[in-house]
Amino acid sequence: MKNLAPVDSDVYPVVKPSFDIHETAIVGFDLFHDDEEDFYALISISQDSVKTWKVSEFGDEVDITELSEYNKIRCGVQSYDISQNGKTIILVDAMNVLHIIKRTSLTKLEGKTVDKGFLEISNVCLTADGLRIFATSFTKGLQIFDFEGVDIMSEPYDKVPYLTAAKFSRNGKYLATGTERGSIELFDGMSLKQTFKIGDSHAKRIRVLQFDSEAMYLLAGSDDGTLSLHALLDGCATRLRYFTYHTGLILSASFDVAGNSALFVSSSTDKRVVIWNTNTGEASQVFKKCFNRDTITAVNFSRNGRYVLSGTEKGNVIIHRILEAVSLPLEVRNTSNLDDVQLSDDDNGELNNDVNGNLAVDVELSESDEEVPVNRPQTPPSPLRAPCIP
């Protein structure tokens, strides 16, 4: 039998089991320490509300207490962002109305809306300073405006109808965009001028884009079931590797931004959460049994790197503690098409279709499969240089 990543091992224990925090699917969240209030805060965003929570640690468990709620979202969320200090949450609903929500105190969220018209605000994210809003518009292209909706700058862009993801790096150096056709482009974070393209990385829609904390690496997740890691050096992008384990659409991913960690986490419609090691390109851990076959719609590392949070389509959250990383060899297929996934006779897997009609592979580990703990991996590998695409 091939060596496989451990499934639901005790190396990553559940410290908060499935806990109902929303009535609808969770879109995203962030767990961080609020230095001003001196407590750990969780911000959760679902299809109909935004909530804040106080998180307390008790030995090997955590407790979550609801503090406040913004419940004026009427028609779902298509894009969102949370500021680095956790004070501002923005989201655009299915009617292209922007909601700007301020966390003004421990127990209060204040919100207002900006409506520029149909299709005038779609993909949104905050600029690195948290003081301006980036959005895509069918008439203005790429645009930046203030919290009152007053335009600051715009740049024509004919690919707006095909954009499916947008993300600013934390240092404001880059803006990355992805399209339904699998292409990725990077722009200067100040001028919105295109700097370079990343071509032929994925065959299908880009659903996820994430930068590491220093904007040296860009992670992309696609509907082809794979993730790709790109090094960004001297105005050039070099693809380092693909990550292949998931067998459904990639729904969410997050870097571990604590220190120089080389871990990231991803979720998929295959109802699995995977922790990856960018040094090796291998899956270090797979979570699946704890979700009760509920699709995981959002994943995130806490900012201190101690927890992995998973949110589901039923509004539940599960929290795992990161004690130490594990890494077992996993065959990496350098392909962006998983239509040809095959199981050998000794894989002991079952093939089935998930709710989205995607091929899923259930692989159970025998009792003899060992977990091999190693030190937490540090920093992704140095890339091989390759030509850029202007």
UniProtKB/TrEMBL annotation:
Pfam families: WD40. The keyword Transmembrane helix does not apply. InterPro entries: WD40/YVTN_repeat-like_dom_sf, WD40_repeat_dom_sf, WD40_rpt. WD repeats lie at residues 243-286. Residues 364-390 are annotated as: Disordered. Keywords: WD repeat. SMART domains: WD40. It comes from the Eukaryota. Residues 378-390 have a biased composition (Pro residues). This is WD_REPEATS_REGION domain-containing protein. It comes from Panagrellus redivivus (Microworm). The lineage of its organism: Eukaryota, Metazoa, Ecdysozoa, Nematoda, Chromadorea.
